[in-house]
């Protein structure tokens, strides 16, 4: 892909995201989502591999269906209430349609099937965009309309997402699929609290984005696509492997790392809302995700490949390190002492 094409795609993603975030009209929000979808498609298919073309086709069909549902939801609400304003969503069938549309776009269970396959067919940088930037517009619409949505439906989908994200990640050896199920699990944590405290959803999304960017950039530097490559990466980049281990543990939510903060606050808020059973359930289900995060951290720093490699010795190769990694990794692991200030900002 030429630099001009990359610039156009990146600008279009930024434009579409900005339009959706700042819009108060259903049609403008739909236009922003469509611009986002069309601008990411060339980045997914740029390798011209059959797997990439398959991922592109799946992504386009799923996102087009979700955008159509969202627009139909807005039109139905406008037909019955006379309001095109996003904040004036009050017609119950429109609320259900919108919940389904946003769940498809975010990859919430039971509409999660497309997300791991699309990430597996994409490059690491494109997978990073799909896991972070492309989740922001649907999350924003969900935040704006959270007062109109069904709490029971959202809670059920969130709990299923946390459970499935941890369960399906256990038997994966491809790092992109592991990160996909990690994203499904974290989206479940964000949506379960969105009705009771939207600020916590934003904080969880910001911290998740920070940690995910750090992990994907590190994996891209070491060209880590599966567990055997991850096992051998310490001979080539020992410091990057160490920081990757810490960031993975932070993404798992282990104290005293940064990733512990949003989970701690979400559980605390659920208990305040007298939803102790729900808080206990998602806490126990998060142990499934913790297992495969620990396995990744173990593979990246402690274990060796089971067989000798016939390739060129790993330590004789040199990979340029992304300049963002030294800045993002400390933020991804040591922001917990700044929690009071972060809560004030959000």
Automatic annotation (TrEMBL):
Its EC number is 7.1.1.2. InterPro entries: Complex_I_Subunit_2, NADH_DH_su2_C, NADH_UbQ_OxRdtase_chain2, ND/Mrp_TM. It comes from the Eukaryota. The keyword Transport applies. GO terms for biological process: mitochondrial electron transport, NADH to ubiquinone. The chain crosses the membrane at residues 12-33, 60-82, 94-115, 152-170, 203-219, 239-261, 282-304, 324-345. Its main location: mitochondrion. Residues 290-343 form the NADH dehydrogenase subunit 2 C-terminal domain. Core subunit of the mitochondrial membrane respiratory chain NADH dehydrogenase (Complex I) which catalyzes electron transfer from NADH through the respiratory chain, using ubiquinone as an electron acceptor. Essential for the catalytic activity and assembly of complex I. This is NADH-ubiquinone oxidoreductase chain 2. It comes from Anodorhynchus hyacinthinus (Hyacinth macaw). The lineage of its organism: Eukaryota, Metazoa, Chordata, Craniata, Vertebrata. The gene is ND2.
């Amino acid at each position: 892909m030429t630099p001009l094409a990359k610039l156009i795609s990146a600008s279009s993603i930024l434009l579409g995201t900005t339009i959706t975030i700042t819009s108060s009209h259903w049609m403008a929000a739909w236009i922003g989502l469509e611009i986002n979808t069309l601008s990411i498609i060339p980045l997914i298919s740029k390798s011209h591999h059959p797997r990439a073309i398959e991922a592109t086709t799946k992504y386009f069909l799923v996102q087009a269906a979700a955008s159509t549902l969202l627009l139909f939801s807005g039109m139905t609400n406008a037909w019955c209430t006379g309001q095109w304003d996003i904040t004036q969503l009050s017609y119950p069938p429109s609320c259900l349609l919108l919940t389904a549309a946003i769940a498809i776009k975010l990859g919430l269970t039971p509409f999660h099937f497309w997300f791991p396959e699309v990430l597996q067919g994409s490059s690491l940088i494109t997978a990073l965009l799909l896991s972070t930037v492309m989740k922001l517009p649907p999350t924003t619409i969900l935040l704006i309309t959270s007062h109109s949505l069904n709490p029971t439906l959202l809670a059920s989908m969130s709990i299923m997402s946390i459970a499935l994200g941890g369960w399906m990640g256990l038997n994966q050896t491809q790092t992109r699929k592991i990160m996909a199920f990690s994203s499904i699990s974290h989206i479940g944590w964000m949506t379960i609290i969105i009705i009771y405290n939207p600020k916590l959803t934003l904080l969880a999304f910001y911290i998740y984005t920070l940690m995910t960017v750090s992990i994907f950039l590190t994996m891209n530097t070491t060209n880590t696509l599966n567990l055997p490559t991850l096992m051998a990466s310490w001979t080539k980049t020992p410091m990057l492997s160490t920081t990757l281990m810490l960031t993975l543990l932070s993404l798992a939510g282990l104290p005293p790392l940064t990733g512990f903060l949003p989970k701690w606050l979400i559980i605390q808020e659920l208990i305040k809302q007298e939803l102790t059973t729900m808080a206990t359930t998602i806490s126990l289900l998060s142990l499934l995700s913790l297992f495969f995060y620990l396995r990744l951290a173990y593979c990246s720093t402690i274990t060796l490949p089971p067989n000798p490699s016939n390739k060129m010795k790993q330590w004789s190769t040199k990979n340029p390190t992304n300049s963002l990694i030294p800045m993002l990794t400390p933020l991804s692991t040591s922001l917990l002492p700044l929690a009071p200030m972060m809560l004030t900002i959000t």
